[in-house]
Amino acid sequence: MKSTTRAWTVLTMIGLLCMSGGVVAAAETTKPGLSGTISISGAWALYPMVVRWAEEFNKIHPDVRIDIAAGGAGKGMADALARAVDIGMVSRNIHPAEIERGAWWVSVTKDAVVPVACEANPALDRLLATGMTKETFASIWITGEVGTWSDVVEGGAPYPVRVYTRSDACGAAQTWAEYLGGTQEELLGVGVYGDPGLADAVRRDELGIGFNNINYVYDAESKKPVAGIEIIPIDLNANGTIDEEEDFYGGRDEIVEAIAGDVYPSPPARDLHLVSQGRPSRPVVVEFLSWILSEGQAYVHEAGYIRLADERLARDLARLRGSESTQEQR
Predict the structure, then answer these.
(1) So what's the pLDDT on residue 302?
(2) Which distant-in-sequence residues (6+ apart) come within 8 Å of 316 by Cβ?
(3) Cα separation of 38 and 47, whole Å?
(4) Model confidence over 26-44: pLDDT tens digits?
(5) Are 36-111+270-320 and 112-260 the same fold in CATH?
(6) How many CA atoms lie within 13 A of 91 on its CB side?
């Protein structure tokens, strides 16, 4: 009799949990039925964001496997066009020749490239106070006219400016070059592979200068610049000093706000895209991209990226689902 009573008590408690939403809420966190594998490669700029999206999507669809590899925007585009992956991550404008070869894309978020120097740079204090103009950056990376730190800032030591760029075909280098009036192929400096590699090269060289996507120079937890790296402020009005309205590099949230408000220029800020060979048709890929353009946007700001306008996201979502057939040229 006691065993029967205990069993009835347990069943009653389970029933109350169900009625209160304890069990029901847990069941609603996953959606059975969607399965398969999605392969993604490309831009370092998008890699942290897509990893976060994949993690959150897997909480809803645990039977979906998402393989993600960074390797530069050029690799992402090439892999997508060759159908070597389902989705390519691209952090630059889509070229007309790529559209002719079948490139189809949705824009999913925005970030920016920033110039960086070593924290141990002997001219750092003066550099942070005066910043550098676009023309000075161009004299370093495009023409090579600036050769020493004394050429960069008044009172700087006559030590050589050691210039770093990217060795892989990437959106960061193309975007930075576009800001300076050139192309990636025209950028001077020692070529280094990948965002992490370039940041590390500058960190180790007190006379070094480079550029990085913002999520590789700000710590994800503290949202402060990573140890050993300093972001070089851009003197936007070229008055020889960093005014209060130009001083937004102290934390990731500050620069994200500046990018969102178009205070930080575009380029080197730019939209980020997910590309495929033709409009995707596999249900698992369509569902993942649909989720990114809708529910997935909830994670954009906390991951250190900038959300695009709702109308634009809705337009790309409609294109993805086949409601609009034309690809807008951006």
Answers:
(1) 93
(2) 106, 107, 293
(3) 15
(4) 333 566 689 999 999 999 9
(5) yes
(6) 36
3-state SS, residue 228:
coil
- Greatest alpha-carbon span in the chain: 94
Q: How far is CA 239 from the centre of its chain?
A: 30
State whether residue 211 is helix, strand or coil.
strand
Instruction: Please choose, from the candidates 317, 318, 312, the residue with its C-alpha nearest in 3D space to the C-alpha of residue 330.
Output: 312
Tokens encoding 163: 């210039």
Q: What homologous superfamily does CATH list for 36-111+270-320?
A: Periplasmic binding protein-like II (3.40.190.10)
| Cα–Cα dist 254/246, whole Å | 11
Partners of 271 in the β-ladder: 110
User: Is pLDDT of 75 > 90?
Assistant: yes
Q: Specify the pLDDT at position 63.
A: 96
Looking at the chain, the whole-number percentage of residues with pLDDT higher than 90 is 85
* Residue 181 region by backbone torsions, left for phi larger than 0, else alpha for psi between -120 and 50, else beta: left
Using pLDDT thresholds of 50, 70 and 90, give the confidence band for residue 12: very low
Pick the CATH number of 112-260 from 3.40.190.10, 3.10.20.30, 3.40.630.30, 1.10.260.40: 3.40.190.10
Q: What count of other Cβ atoms lies within 10 Å of the Cβ of residue 148? A: 14
**205 in Cβ contact with 162 (< 8 Å):** yes
Phi and psi at residue 295, in whole multiples of 5°?
-60, -35
Locate 324 and state its tokens: 């609009």
pLDDT score for 185:
96
Structure tokens, 21:
């939403």
Q: How confident is the model at residue 155 (pLDDT cuts 50, 70, 90)?
A: confident
Residue 218 pairs in a beta bridge with: 225
Residue of 160, 164, 159, 162 lying closest to 176 (CA atoms): 164
N-term to C-term CA, the chain: 75
214 φ, ψ (degrees, to nearest 5): -60, -30
DSSP three-state, residue 52: helix
